[in-house]
Structures are given as structure tokens and as C-alpha cells.
Amino acid sequence: MTYDKEFFLNPNLKVPNIDLNGYSNQELLNFYKKMFLIREAEKTLAKGKKNGQIGGPVHLGAGQEAIPTAISSFLNKSDKVFGNHRSHTHIISLGTDLRRFFAEILGRENGLCKGRGGSMHLIDQSVGFFGSVPIVAGSLSIAVGAALASKLRKDKTVVVAFFGDSVSEEGIFHESLNFAKLYSLPILFVAENNLFASHMYITERQSSSFTSRFADSHSIKNQVVDGNNVIDIHKCASKFIQSCRNGEGPCYLEAFTYRWYGHVDWREDIDVGLNRSEEDLILWKERDPLKRLKNEILSSKNISHKLFEKEELKILNNVDKAWNKALMDPYPDKLTLLENVYADRK
Predict the structure, then answer these.
(1) Comparing C-alpha atoms, which of 80, 269, 298, 41 is closest to residue 187?
(2) Which of these, 103, 104, 68, 100, lies nearest to 87 by C-alpha position?
(3) Does residue 301 contact residue 20 with C-beta atoms inside 8 Å?
(4) Helix, strand, or coil (residue 193)
(5) DSSP states along 126-182
(6) pTM of the model
(7) CA distance 309 to 331
(8) Tell me, what's the pLDDT at 84?
(9) Torsion 99-33-35-279 (CA) sign
(10) How far apart, in whole angstroms, are the C-alpha atoms of residue 294 and residue 180?
(11) 141: nearest Cα among 176, 177, 189
(12) Sign of the C-alpha dihedral, residues 53, 50, 282, 162?
């Protein structure tokens, strides 16, 4: 769908209907279930942090579920995904074990990194997630390196690099785009533009709110989409990932969205010292990707409220079970503190 640029920045503007043509009931239900799973996992973490059950910081991505949900549906187990400090949505969308995911954030021995990484240092190569880091743009050049390796091997592997809008203010971002284009690498750059970098609104930091202008400057194929419309993202990701897989070089997808929580932890209204407009938050929540898709399905497809309730209850039970099991997992033994940290030179 084509939008006026103002649509991505002004939550007062009317939200168009989601066009479900060409999608089966099962495909649509699968989109919703994955987004619902991510949302409930994030809500569980928010509650756990508020209750003091989580020691380290958590950067929540509630409101941004549609982006990884759509993109992950085109990825193979051999593809590689790289994230950032706000990557719960990314790793869950790929199908990571939820109990081990929770255990990692709780600092438990059964965690994905044996409790060493926490919320911001996640990795699960078994599902194609090759790491997240808290350093802004920290994983971007590594993703480009993985794409270079894929091209040299000629293995048709696609690399996806997720990052926020503030990454475009780092030098390595521009070097990565330039290198990827120069060597025609199979990488999809995904800018999750939620308009804030920690506590600063994008217009306070940049002359334009659209980071895709930098893709233009490097002659990289790009598109701006509604990051709260899973179908829009899915259609764009379909052509871009296929283009990368066919050896046609990098692509750049910019998805405008809005995170519901503050920069870190469970509060909705505070962004590291900046009080967001409560009115804006309410308006952006009207673009909730879950609610929009569910309402559209209920009004135009043969899927009942009862089926939604059944699937939601199943997911809620699974999330609750995984969280409670993770809470029972032991902490790592203090004597193992330095294990799995440094490479064994032997």
C-alpha cells in the first residue's frame, strides 16, 4: 500500500483497512498467533521486572511484533538473523525455546547462554538467531560479514539485520551499506523506526525522519512500510528476501512503528527521563498490529471469536508454563563464572 509520508509520523491520521486478499485463514491465524505469543512474552517480562524477579535491564518491543513476524515467515534454518538490544521479538519470532529464553533473562543455568547474557545478549543458532548486542550498530558489520561469507560460499543463505532508527547515526551503518552494495551481498537491512532513540525523538536528531534516504544514497533497493500492518511488511519482505536469495544484492526495509514501553523496563510513560505524551501513546496504540489484524479477520474472514479465544488461551498457558518452569531453574554455580566466556586455547 502507498502512504503519504505524514501517515508514518502522525498518529492522528486515519488508519486504512488491512487488505487480506490472497491470504488463507490459516496464514492469517498463524500471523496473529505469533504476534500474540510475542506480546504475552513481553508482558510477562514487564511484570517480572516490575516485581523484582529480573535483575538486569529489559528493553521491551511490545507494539513492534508485526515486523519480525512477517519477515521470519520467509527464512530458512540456514539463514542468519542479527539483532540489537531490543531483540526479544526477533528471537521469539524464529521459534526459540520459550522456557530457555525466559531462563536466560532470569540469569538461570538453563538459559540460552547459561544465564550469562540476559536480555541484551541473546543467541540461539538452532533457530538462526546469531546474536544481539547492546552497542548501537554493534551487530551490523558482523551481519555484513555473514552475508559476505554466504556469497563466497554460494549457498543462497540470506542475512537479516534488525536495528533501530538511531543506528543510522553511527559511522559503521554507512560503511555497512556501502560495503553490502559494492559487493552485492545477500542481506536485508530492517530499520525498525519507532521514532525514539532512548529518550530523544527523531526530529531532534536528524533532518529527516526517514532513514531509507541513506539506502537511496547507496543505490540500495528500499521501501517504507507500515510497521503495524503485518500484511504490508509480509508483501515487502517477500520480494526483498527473494531478491537477496537470487543474488541481486542488498535491500532495505524501513518499518515505522511505535514501542509501547519506555526505553527500558516496564514503564509505559517514561523514556529515560523524557515524559512521553500520554495522548500520543493512546493514539499509537490504536494502531496495535494485533488488534488491527484480528478485527480485520473477524470482519472479513470465516474465523470466529471462539477460535481466537481458544488459540489465545493455549498461548497464554504455554507462556505461563514456560515462565514458571524458568523461575524454578537454578542459578549457575559461582565456580563456573568464567566458563563459556573465553575460548579454550587447547
Answers:
(1) 80
(2) 68
(3) yes
(4) strand
(5) GGTB----SSTTTTHHHHHHHHHHHHHHT----EEEEEEGGGGGSHHHHHHHHHHHH
(6) 0.95
(7) 36
(8) 96
(9) negative
(10) 38
(11) 176
(12) negative
At 345 the pLDDT is 65
Locate cell 552475508: which residue? 147
How sure is the predictor about 3, in pLDDT bands with cuts at 50, 70 and 90?
confident
Give the DSSP per-residue string, 247-261: T---EEEEEE---SS
Instruction: Return the amino acid letter for 60.
Output: L
C-alpha to C-alpha distance for 211 and 129, rounded to whole angstroms: 24
Q: What are phi and psi of 255, to 5 degrees?
A: -110, 115
Instruction: Report DSSP state, residue 340.
Output: T
The answer to whether the beta carbons of residues 215 and 55 sit under 8 Å apart is no
Q: How many residues does the chain have?
A: 346
Q: What are phi and psi of 251, to 5 degrees?
A: -135, 160
For the stretch 300-346, pLDDT in tens is 888 999 999 999 999 999 999 999 999 999 999 999 888 877 777 66
User: Please, what is the Cα angle at 45 between 257 and 313, to 5 degrees?
Assistant: 85
The angle formed by the CA atoms of residues 227, 184 and 72, to the nearest 5 degrees, is 35
pLDDT digits (tens, 9 = 90+) for 247-303: 999 999 999 999 999 888 898 866 655 667 788 889 999 999 999 999 999 998 889
How confident is the prediction for the chain on average, in pLDDT? 94
Yes or no: say if 153 and 186 are a contact pair by the CB < 8 Å rule: no
Q: Identify the residue whose cell numbers are 538453563.
A: 110
Rounded to whole angstroms, the Cα distance separating 181 from 271 reads 35
